[in-house]
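Board notes (copied after class):
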Amino acid sequence: VQLQASGGGLVQTGGSLRLTCAVSGQPRSGFSVGWFRQPPGKEREFIATNRWSAGYPYYADTVKGRFTISRDISKKTSYLQMNSLKPEDTAVYYCALGNVIASTKTYQSAYTYWGQGTLVTVSS
């Protein structure tokens, strides 16, 4: 399984972007897809996750109400719709996939497969 993240770019405060994570290979039905980000000079942090086959989205408090995770199983693609962007959302965004149990869904170590990251820059 390989992941390819795309869709990053430069956007003004209040703008929107949609990130895409294309999956090659076949994710198992029990897998979860997660999105993480690493702001400049900071640790990578959890953003959102979704069960690949069943949904059940879960968000970090910092993005709840602004970001939406979704997936198109037929296209083997996960999406992260980001609205009302703020300068503090500036980061490299990563998608990840793994056989994740609920109690560890926010942990990076729970995800086995990772994309290469896409840079989002929000200007003030």
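Comment from the instructor: The longest strand covers residues 17-24. The radius of gyration is 13 Å.
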